Amino acid sequence: MKMDADILIVGGGLNGPALALALASGGLRSVIIDAVPLATRRKPAFDGRAYALSLTTVRMLQVLGIWGAVQAEAQPMLDIKVSDGKPFEGASALHVHFDHNEIAEGPMGHMLEDRFLRRALLDAVKASKLITQIAPAAVAAQEILASHAEVTLADGRVLRGRVLVGCDGRRSGVAMRAGIARTGHDYHQSGLVCAVRHEKPHNGVAYQQFMPSGPLAILPLKGDRSAIVWTETTTRAALIAAMPDREFMAELRPRFGDFLGKIKLVGKRFSYPLNLTVANELTQARLALVGDAAHGIHYLAGQGLNLGLRDVAALAEVLLDAARRGEDIGNPLVLARYGRWRGVDTATLTASTDLINKLFSNDNPLLRAGRVAGLGVVNAIPSARRGFIREAAGLTGDLPRLLRGLAI
Ligand SMILES: Cc1cc2nc3c(=O)[nH]c(=O)nc-3n(C[C@H](O)[C@H](O)[C@H](O)COP(=O)(O)OP(=O)(O)OC[C@H]3O[C@@H](n4cnc5c(N)ncnc54)[C@H](O)[C@@H]3O)c2cc1C
User: Is 16 a pocket residue for ligand 1 (Cβ < 6 Å)?
Assistant: First the structure.
């Protein structure tokens, strides 16, 4: 039977295009289907999102030929300072300072605005002879057969491939149609996201302040600008989001502090509800889940996209190795290798972000004293500091070849 591609990818956000490019680098053909028109996904407006790309994610983007197109817009993240704080009181005097000079590999990562990464990925996809994009096109149905997977689009077209991959986000229809249940809960928090310009340079330092209602991240962008990801309880976030810019900034300033001089809002503000949603299975016969479709986590660790790109690197390696050995790439045993590889990492990061949020997002005086003491202990032990730095840089665990900077 004639196939439209080796792999059918539903979802052309960030992980879908990255997966198609990784597969193409080894000679496998993909079709990417997305409900949103290409021009809308490629539009240059800042949507408030900026990613802390870990060092190993950057290596992968270099191998895939994407990094050259975005490097000029990326801000190296040299240090991270973590503290416990309270509005109007500022950060606690005791904080942990993670300095990239403590590891040999260089900056822990780079901050990059979503719009630059998205455009670079979509341009590379367009230039590839092995990738076809179908958009706008919504998926209406899917069927897994003995020899292939079939996807029916809302306009009646039917596409066939050896494997179907769901890169279709936190409410993955691919997972739902396959009967894969999800585990998770609502954090009853929302992320208020914006960017500010400040008087003093940030010197490549990222700040994470744990406030009673949730963490406040101040992340360095190119120029004297920082991205703000400010977590508040859902009710308070809704009130703050509804405020005019002047009142919003009056709320933000006492939390932000004055260490970067005067701050000014640049661009629009956004608000995103926060929940945890993890698929109970990563694979079935001829089917795999990648990125937010597999695991949507809290933004506090800034690891959502890094985790997704680790999935991409692992799945591409498993599929390409299987294809080279002459195996059927849709065989459940082949895909289970990907599930085993990514399962532990996903579970660890999901559980740790969940625990950190529970421990830090409250004003309990006992827990607060414990937190401050804990930060002091980590700060005083070089090996503990280096462990965290290696974790943030993505250097730990069984890394797929792309994340080690090697072609697949
Ligand atoms: C404010 C904010 C800040 C963040 N900060 C960070 C950070 O600092 N670091 C980090 O690593 N991560 C961060 N994240 C998380 C990161 O944005 C996500 O992990 C990442 O965008 C997920 O990409 P994805 O491709 O898996 O899914 P998505 O980006 O959700 O893409 C899914 C795609 O599937 C398409 N689709 C869905 N259903 C269908 C259908 N039925 N038919 C066709 N197409 C369909 C959609 O149109 C969409 O294009 C942040 C997220 C937010 C919101």
Answer: yes
pLDDT, one tens digit per residue, over 264-297 is 999 889 999 999 999 999 999 999 999 999 999 8
Residue 212's nearest CA partner among 177, 271, 150, 255 is: 255
Report the CATH number that the domain containing residue 61 is assigned in CATH.
Answer: 3.50.50.60
Residue that is written with structure tokens 């500091």 in the block: 385
The reply to whether 106 falls in a domain is: no
Residue 1 reports pLDDT greater than 90: no
Domain that holds residue 118: 5-75+111-184+276-363
Q: How many domains does the chain have?
A: 1
Q: Say if residue 17 is preceded by a cis peptide, omega within 30 of 0.
A: no
Which atom in ligand 1 lies closest to the alpha carbon of residue 111?
8
How far apart CA 358 and CA 138 sit, in angstroms, is: 37
Q: Which atom of ligand 1 is nearest to the CA of 307?
A: 11
CA dihedral sign, ordered 367, 258, 213, 273: negative
Q: What is the pLDDT of residues 36-77, one digit of tens each?
A: 999 998 887 767 689 999 999 999 999 999 999 999 999 999
Rounded Cα gap, residues 291 and 352, in angstroms: 18
**pTM (whole model) above 0.85:** yes
